[in-house]
Amino acid sequence: MKHNICVIGSGGREHAIAWKLLQSQHVDKVIMIPGNDILQNRDRIVNVKLDKLDGPLVANVCRQYNIELVFVGPEVPLCEGISDSLKKQGISCFGPSEKAAVIEGSKAFSKDFMVRHQIPTAKYKNFTDYLEACKYIENEVDYQMVIKASGVAAGKGVLIPQDKKEALEALKRIMVVKEFGSAGQEVVIEEFIEGEECSLMCFSDGHSLQVMPPAQDHKRIFDLDQGPNTGGMGAYAPAPFVIGHQGSPRGKHGFGALIDRAIETVLQPAIDGMRKEGRPFVGVLFAGLMISRQQQIKVLEFNCRMGDPETQVILPLLESDLYEVVCACVEGRLDSIPTLKWRQEYCVTIVAASKGYPDVYPKGLPIKGIEECNSVSGITVFQAGTSLASDMKTMNTSGGRVLAVTCIDKSLETAILSAYKSIQLIQFDGMQYRRDIGQKALNYLNSQEKVQSVSYSESGVDMERGDQVVDNIVPMAKSTNRLGCMADLGGFGALFDCKAAGFKDPILVSGTDGVGTKLKIAQELDIHGTIGIDLVAMCVNDVVVQGAEPLFFLDYFATGKIHVNVATQVISGIAKGCKESGCALIGGETAEMPGMYKDGEYDLAGFSVGAVERDKLLPLLNEFKEGDVLLGIASSGVHSNGYSLVRYLVEKKSGLKYTDKCPWDSSKTIGQSLLTPTKLYVLSCLAAIKAGGVRALAHITGGGITENLPRVFPNGYQAEIKFGSWTIPPVIQWLNSLGNMKQEELLRTFNCGIGMILVIDPTQLDTVKSILESHNETVYTIGRVTKSSNSNEKPKVVYI
């Protein structure tokens, strides 16, 4: 079944939206309110004029044409709440609510919002009082300024004075003369920042987003960016100074590392921030960015809709079905559709404007050549300020920006030349257009060809992503600081002061380990938040066995390609594990090694250092006595050993998938249960050691009880373990049912429910057990120490 859809607006942007929607297999007709008498697809585009643009009147049109979905093009109706009004009428609307549209409707709100959500932007100050603003400029400003009308000003309410005198004049034009009407009731005075402007848009359903290619607009009326600001005199996409030349690494989202970073630091925080503030943003979020020579990103502004003329170069590149994307956003399921597909080409649009624009201009002038231009291969004319004369044949001008000639080609230079050749077919009195659209991009590409240098990123190593990971983990690492830490992350070596930590005559104890093939399950399920806890536990649990207090931790994260969100999740788990063990995450290494690992794969290694006073070092081998009690502390599950066998049993023997429900716990999937993090025993065991009576500890890892417990026994002694004196976890029982392992094999493969064993002086048994239980440990008395018949016999475990 095909649907009719309504598009609100009358510009070139709205023509491009209608043009793209009509390519969908789901769309029959587009009803445009008010429209602009488009010559193309006249049998499928209906223009409807209304006395005023409000929700009830638009809803009436929708009912008349059996329309269930409205696509709002311009910002003004969105800021006035048309989306909310239509929803009250039972009509879906692609475009944000009035509360969400304020991100464009008030530049003052937008700037404050960016600060609240740590989105990078220029320093600024908002004013509603003209005299206070003047006083601020005269007495406090020591930088070049940009003066912005806070409200909606059709893209023209931004003035860039060259000195304080011009700044005061600009302020007067906005707030006193009211050159931009009510938009100038409040102003934003902000720092001018240099760089290249980039228009970056994304579709959003209020939670997730899908990004569009970065474009560059040309705001000034004349060549070389001279003259007053306009709504936009032309654009091109994608912008090569952002994505690099053809053949550059495409990054996670398809447009290079810089766009990946913009998504992570600008777009996603904005979408998340709006939702958290009760303003979920559904529609297209437009971020006007400034990219410095050092590739730093700052936000100039947010808009609540698609850009014009950026839309005219973005939508021709879209291969995916626009109607399906819009429906996914409106229905809150954008993350359920495939990643958008884009043509690997360039698109250029050149705007033809009326004489006098952006000031006073004539209307009603006849236009020739639109149909002829449209007939040129690869050329599309998007109409804007156009309307049919009373004879219903002659097309006349009716606006400042009259139309845009658009071309798409694999070569940016060819696209530009074709667009300029074709625009010469268009004629109307006083027609003006810029002759340098896309020239900056050509200059950039030519300069890159001349340099012929190789960047590290071309080999697949993206230092920017690595830097972003570091930026993300710094606050996590700081949260683990403890007495003894001497420096933040970033130095060549990590420093720690044992004396400051309270030690007098310490022995340093180190431990290193990994997580093994448990990582494969985490990577397959895209669950990375707890695997870092496993890494910490495997190291610090070893350190505490020596009676030592873990002091600091270092990690090594190696991957074929850094995905910032994955690395951040993993290291957040490491930080959490450190915090719960009382040790500091003091340093680490993130290594990107394309060719060594596949994209999506990573490996981990951890390094922990602890300290114990010389006379407190464990095990106390000389104090072992027959009859000493063996206490077992329960594990949380499989922990981090034996996962090669676990994976074999699940994948080859069970007939189930990791995403299937647990046979032993219906509230979780098999994968979720198997990713239960390794238990951290540090704080409970240190408390037990401090109470006295602890002869030794054994961390039960690979090799199980059978191979790990004898490591802390002196010759001539053995451990007598009563099998069945503790509860074997259901997950291990299930794995054993699949493998039908012998008891001996089971006990030297898995921990079987015991993660740490303490050798205890019987006179201290009740005290130690009580302390462990006060730390929420489940404790079992599982056996005792016995003497061997031969005092030189190596220790072993005997199960009874």
From TrEMBL:
Pathway, according to UniProt? Purine metabolism; IMP biosynthesis via de novo pathway; N(1)-(5-phospho-D-ribosyl)glycinamide from 5-phospho-alpha-D-ribose 1-diphosphate: step 2/2; Purine metabolism; IMP biosynthesis via de novo pathway; 5-amino-1-(5-phospho-D-ribosyl)imidazole from N(2)-formyl-N(1)-(5-phospho-D-ribosyl)glycinamide: step 2/2
**Keywords on this record?**
ATP-binding, Ligase, Manganese, Metal-binding, Multifunctional enzyme, Nucleotide-binding, Purine biosynthesis
Alphabetical GO CC annotations of the entry are:
cytosol
A Pfam family matched in the record: GARS_N
**GO molecular function annotations of the record:** ATP binding; metal ion binding; phosphoribosylamine-glycine ligase activity; phosphoribosylformylglycinamidine cyclo-ligase activity
**Alphabetically, which GO biological process terms does the record hold?**
'de novo' IMP biosynthetic process; adenine biosynthetic process
Annotated ranges, domain ATP-grasp: 111-331
Give the UniProt family note.
In the N-terminal section; belongs to the GARS family.
| Protein name per its UniProtKB record | Phosphoribosylamine-glycine ligase
Organism encoding this protein: Tieghemostelium lacteum
